[in-house]
Each structure stands twice: as C-alpha cells, then as structure tokens.
Amino acid sequence: xxxxxxRRQGRPPxxxxxxxxxxxxxxxxxxxxxxxDDVPLPRLGERFGTPLYVYSASxxxxxxxxxxxxxxxxxxxxxxxxxxxxxxxxxxxLARMGCGFDVVSGGELERVLGADRRAAGKVVxxxxxxxxxxxxxxxxxxxxxxxVESESELGTLAxxxxxxxxxxxxxxxxxxDVPANTHRYISTGLHQHKFGVRSGEARGLYARASGSEHxxxxxxxxxxxxxxxxxxxFALAMERVAELVRDLRADGHRIDYVDAxxxxxxxxxxxxxxxxxxxxxxxxxxxxxPLHGLKVHLLLEPGRAIVGAAGVLLTRVxxxxxxxxxxxxxxxxxxxxxxxxxxxxxxxxxxxxxxxxPPSPLREKVDVVGPICETGDFxxxxxxxxxxxxxxxxxxxxxxxxxxxxxxxxxxxxxxAEVLVEGKSVRVxxxxxxxxxxxxxxx
Length: 443
Ligand code: LLP
Known about the structure:
By secondary structure, the chain is α/β, with parallel strands linked by helices. It has helices at 21-25, 41-48, 57-70, 88-96, 106-115, 132-141, 151-163, 199-209, 232-250, 276-288, 304-307, 340-344, 435-439; strands spanning 15-19, 31-36, 39-40, 52-56, 76-81, 100-103, 123-125, 145-148, 168-175, 197-198, 215-221, 257-259, 297-300, 311-323, 326-331, 350-352, 354-356, 363-369, 378-386, 393-396, 417-422, 425-430. It has 13 helices and 22 strands.
C-alpha cells in the first residue's frame, strides 16, 4: 500500500495528501487528507472558517532559494513583486530572507516599510502613473530605483527630488516590442501597450535625464508581461536591453543595474510535467546569457513564481443542484474572493480535501460556482471531479498569487481570512473581515 504523501510535479511539496488518523486506525474507511506543510486543512477550515486563504511559508522559502540558486553566478537582487500577494506576514518573511521589493503604489511602499523599514534600500518603484505624493514618499524612504515610464514622469520626478533636495536613482522602462504568449490583459511588452518607452526614444530620454542634477541614471528596466511559460520572449527582450546598455554606455551614461521585471509563469495544470527547478534554470539562462560581459547587477521582480503555488483557497460545498442535466457545486467562495477565473478565464485545479483510500471511482462533470449573482461567478466549468457532497471542503490550488490582492467586497461579502503555515505552526496573518469593518467607512 502506497500511503506516502503524494506530490504533484512542478509544485512545491507544501500541499500534499497524508493519511488521515482515522484511516490509520480503521483501515476500511481509510482516507487521505490534504495538508499544508504538517497541518491538515480540515483543522484550519474548522478553526478559522471558510473561505480561507492558506499559505505555506516553506513553499515560499523554497521558491526564493530556487531563484537564488538559479542566478547564483551573477550579482542579483530578488525584488519580490508586492502586487502578487501583499500580506504583511508574507512581506516580513521575504524581508527576513533578504529580498527586496517591487512596488507600484504608495500603499505598497507603506506595506514594505511596515514589514521592514530597512528593506527600503532594495525597493524598486514601477508603474505608469506614479503621483507626485507617491514619488515623494519613495524619495523620503530612500528607495533603490524608480522605473520611469515616460518623459512627463521624468519631469515630475525631477521636480519632486529638487523640492526635497534629494537625488532619484532612475532606470527607464523600455518597451522592447516583444510578444509574450499570455492572456492579452497581462501582456505588456508590445508597442501598442501603455507600458514603458519605445527603445528608439530611450537614448534621447536618458540624455535629457542626465541634464538634471536631481536624477541619477542607474539602470535600464523591462517587463514584458505575466504568466509567460516560454523563455524565448525573455531572452529576446534581454538582448534588446543589452544592446541599449551598450549604446547608453557609449553615450557616456553609467548603467549599474538591469531590472528584468517579473513574469515567469507557473503551471496551473494538473498534468504539468516541468519541475519548477527546470523552468527557473531555463529562465535564468535566458536572462543571463544576453547580459554576458556587461557586469551589471541584475534585479528580478518575480511575483507569481514565488507565491502562486504556495497558497490555496479553502472553500466548503454549500449545495449541489441540477439544471437540465447540468450539475452545479455551489461553494462558499466566490469571484470576489478569487477573481482570476472570472477575469481571465483562468484555470485553477480544484481538489477535494479528503479523498478515500483507495480513491473512489465515482467521478462527475460539474460546474463549481460561487454564490454571487453573476454567471461569471465560477471557478470551473464542466470539470471532472471526484463526487463531492454538501459540507465537503475543496481546495482551489495555486491561489497564492493574485488571489487575495484582487479580492473585493462585491455583494457586501467580507474578504477571507489568511493564514500562514510553517511546519506545524499556524499564524493568522489577516483576520476575516466583518460587515462592521465595511460599514465603518460609510457615513
Ligand atoms: N513587475 C512588473 C512591472 C509587473 O507589472 C508585474 C506584474 C510583475 C513584476 C510581477 O509579475 P509576475 O512575476 O507575478 O508575473 N492579475 C494577473 C497578473 C497581473 C500582473 C501584473 N504585473 C493574474 O492574476 O494573472
């Protein structure tokens, strides 16, 4: 009998089935129970209620180490992209590991400073619409780098820095005009997208920036999109960046940093055959090769690749129903808790938290849907799942990135609690909202 924890390929081992205690004693009703690290998920569901985000600290650490191993041959800093999951508990964990951060708003900057003030020196500030207030807060905090996206923004930043008598270190975000095979909402590196400046314009803008005593040219940055699972677009973008670095140096600028952005995809599919360590190695190769000989410090802004597979959304089956032969499983989580399926038609694997051992052959095709009054409120369409019953717990996998951060209060639903598990220890890193919390802001 093989009752070892089972591990799906390509994902951290953090979420694995382990034999249930009841099963060990009474073999006839044996079952396997999905755990996060050493903690059975049903225990978390009972203690903290559902829907509930559950994160594994060990999985997050493992991914950070994987990045560091893959890039060990070049000087680099991992600037975790806060937008993927901005929970303070997670930011603290990453800060303790020595990570820097990529922020896109004053709010995200405050979170990073709240997690660890000393991290400011490793913060890069990206985004097409930074306000003067946000720039000033970042200048006061002493961040590492502003990734500037337009000529007007350069002007505003220079004014802010002059007002504060500070010098802003800058990189221009170039738009390398490289197609990335991903959802059109999250592809960013083509000239028709709002991001960055055209490569052809960049040299002129660097020349203008060098005329300001309050701007210090420090690097070049690029980001071509998110959930990119092939490495060729990254390599192509990097080749264009390397060419620009050479040109800028020839123009007399000092370029110490190349910020490669984020975007490395993860496998959401059950059948994925690539191990994360292989895909990160290929990714590192794609970025590092074009930069050979340039002696730059590489900044990386991964978000999803660090936290995506390290989280699940735990939800309970409320009702089963049939309409004209179609079967629905209505769960207590909804599109307000995890928006990705509704917004991008994104696939998330859904698994029952308890499975019979040996597994029951009973399977059925169902739609897994939430309680919100929209047809777009779904987690899966026509998905073949083991038969589930009312009251059962399900885990929506790979929900650690762009899950809670995209949650809303639509339908006056309170957002889920979040727990961070490390080995046997469980910490509530955000309590469940109450309706009172929501109403407090309204007059
Ligand atoms: N750096 C910049 C400048 C970015 O715009 C992003 C993501 C990242 C880094 C991090 O990308 P990652 O490594 O996580 O792919 N809500 C979407 C994803 C939006 C990504 C936006 N920018 C989703 O749920 O798939």
